[in-house]
Design a protein that fits this description.
The protein is of the alpha/beta class. Helix content is about 45%, strand content about 15%. Strand 4, helix 10 and strand 5 form a beta-alpha-beta unit.
């Protein structure tokens, strides 16, 4: 092909090309063209460059030639026929960059109005860009990374129970939803009407609290539930006895019972240890600290809160307990197990990625 004309990259051009390659939102085609130039600058042959980024030699030569003629601007797609775009790729990239890397001076996150004012484009165009890149600055989620030194070991143990349960054994997820409040609104609800949602007062009367002790049978999805006014090891032992009665009534003699639960102090008292010593078929598996999401019964509690408790009106603790236990009865009428699909390696990989992201954020 003859002697290659040197590209003579400047430091600024090299930095711009590397930035485009690293930026997650850069289109794949543009990133590959930038790689062509960077690899050519390293002295690789056309064949080696094509093999590295899965591109034909003729295409490598095309983009090298385009760069020699028009520099970095020549790597971008040429305008297509039709009405000329008012919003350029550079403007789109700047909106994405600002959304990810900056904050408005007077707020913690961007709104359509503030981004439109800062970028000089319309709110509808900002909305289109955010939708295209799946950016939602108005949303925020909470998280907490476990610092348990045995996090990996405990995670593998519990996920192993879900995905490959032992022979002649049942796996049961146990937890307590404590401090359920019996809240009664100070005025009657205004019912939903066409064009108007249900409305209720923001203030309320407190009539007391109760704790729901629940056990999810992982294989069947059946939930065992009891309500207690106090949340001590005595109530936990009573609930263990209830679970034991159900297991003996539904499972063959000698069935091992593996219970997944958290590290709450009432689960580890001497009295609980004595109960376990009398029931050697029971084996406790503790979730890592700050990792309650590994306990499947938490999904039951989330569903209960959404369907019964959040908008419920309870004139007494008894009515609260009736609603909670009624939810469990209705759920058991059509019980279905949760399908656990993430293996331990997948979970640990995601946690490691979150740790790395958190450490890089500097917060």
């Amino acid at each position: 092909m003859g002697t290659r004309k040197p590209l003579d990259l400047t430091d600024a051009e090299r930095d711009e090309l590397r930035t485009l390659v690293r930026r997650p939102r850069t289109p794949r085609a543009l990133a590959d063209r930038c790689r062509v130039v960077l690899l050519d600058d390293e002295g690789l042959t056309y064949a080696a460059i094509g093999a590295r980024i899965d591109m034909r030699e003729q295409t490598v030569l095309k983009w090298r030639t385009r760069f020699l003629t028009h520099r970095v601007a020549g790597l971008r797609d040429a305008p297509r026929p039709g009405v000329q775009r008012k919003i350029t790729d550079e403007m789109v990239a700047e909106v994405v960059r600002m959304t990810l890397e900056e904050k408005p001076p007077d707020a913690t996150h961007w709104s359509l109005r503030s981004m439109a004012a800062a970028s000089g484009i319309s709110r509808s165009s900002v909305n289109t860009i955010w939708r295209a890149f799946n950016l939602q600055p108005h949303r925020s989620q909470t998280f907490k990374l476990s610092t348990d030194p045995r996090f990996v070991e405990k995670t593998r143990d519990i996920v192993g129970l879900y995905m490959s349960p032992p022979q002649n054994a049942v796996v049961i997820c146990v937890d307590e939803k404590s401090q359920m409040q019996a809240l009664d609104r100070t005025q009657p609800l205004l019912p939903m009407r066409p064009g108007s949602p249900e409305r209720r007062t923001h203030d309320y009367y407190r009539h007391g609290t109760s704790s729901l002790f629940a056990a999810l049978m992982v294989k069947t999805g059946v939930v065992i539930g009891e309500c207690h006014r106090r949340h001590r090891h005595q109530e936990f032992i009573k609930f263990l006895s209830t679970i034991d009665g159900v297991v003996k009534a539904t499972e063959p003699v000698g069935t091992a019972v593996h219970i997944v639960l958290d590290n709450y102090a009432t689960h580890k008292t001497p009295a609980v240890q004595r109960w376990l010593a009398k029931h050697p078929e029971y084996h406790l598996h503790f979730t890592p600290t700050s990792a309650s999401w590994l306990n499947q019964v938490e999904r039951v509690f989330a569903d209960l809160t959404e369907k019964q408790l959040r908008r419920g009106v309870f004139t007494s603790v008894a009515s609260l307990e009736h609603a909670a236990l009624g939810y469990i009865d209705a759920r058991n009428d059509d019980a279905k197990p949760f399908v656990w699909t993430a293996d331990a390696d997948t979970i640990l990989g995601r946690v490691a990625k979150n740790r790395a992201t958190s450490s890089k954020s500097g917060h």
